[in-house]
Amino acid sequence: MRSSLAPKSVLRSCRIPYSRTSICRAAPPICQTSHQRNISAPHTPPSNHRFTSTTSATTTTTNAQEPSQTSTPSPPRNHYDLFPLTFPNGPPPASPFKVDPRTLRNEFLRLQATAHPDRHTSTTSKTRAEATSALINDAYKTLLSPLLRAQYLLSLRGIDVAGDETGKVDDAELLMEVLETREEIEDAEQEEDLQGLRERNEKRIEEAEEVLERMFAEDDLEGARREAVRLRYWINIKESLHAWEKGKPVVLVH
């Protein structure tokens, strides 16, 4: 009886070659999935390139911001800006017209100590310091004097009280009072004769300052202009009293 089993040689020739490739071809979904996983999530070693770029961008941004931090402060818009401690709110009507002379004086001395030319070495710095010092001096003198302060405030609003036209007075009563005061000064025989006149004139100046305080607080520029002209006459009378000499004529600046 012939055996039904195939010879071993035949079985060997019918074997399918065994390899990794053949398994992948036999099961493509598994192999492709594994391959896609390797592509979509590659293992990339850490790189310093991206960090360096971020740092560079940050440095560039920081450097771009530095000029604004160290830039030169803008120049003052008016005399009040030079004295922020004395006038934190700026000129009237935000601040009172009246000034505390001691507070203004203290801040003036501090500013001058900082801007003094002797504190600077280079020629450019000295020149700049001299200009700043002159500006501070002019602002201090202007703000310290009630008359100059009033004239300056009006000039900021386009009103030149020191001019001939805007400085004229159409108040007949005021003119008469001024002329009579001038005659009293010229007729005085001795210094003591002027004491009562000095006291009355100081009271006029105080009253004028009170009116200016109210006018600027109300932003009444026309009222402030009229009172500034009156104050100019009383200041002129005060200077005439201070410079009095027997027989010397009194010249009033209108």
Order of helices and strands: HHHHHHHHHH
Which fold name corresponds to the CATH topology of the domain at 172-242?
Answer: Monooxygenase
CATH superfamily of the domain at 172-242: HscB, C-terminal domain
Unreliable segments of 5+ consecutive residues: 1-42, 44-71
Class by alpha and beta content: mainly alpha
Mean pLDDT: 77
Q: In DSSP terms, counting alpha (H) and pi (I) runs of 4 or more, how many helices?
A: 10
**Overall number of strands:** 0
CATH architecture of the domain at 172-242: Up-down Bundle
- Indicate the radius of gyration in whole angstroms: 46 Å
Helical fraction equals 55-70%
CATH classification, class level of the domain at 172-242: Mainly Alpha
Biggest sheet, open or closed, and with what strands and sense? none
Would you mind describing this structure in some detail?
This protein has 254 residues and is mainly alpha-helical. Among the domains are: 79-144, Helix Hairpins; 172-242, Monooxygenase. 62% of the residues lie in helices and 0% in strands. It is built from ten helices and no strands. It has helices spanning 8-14, 20-26, 28-40, 49-70, 101-115, 123-144, 146-156, 172-187, 195-217, 221-242. Helix 7 packs antiparallel against helix 10 (221-242). Residues 1-42 and 44-71 have low confidence and may be disordered.
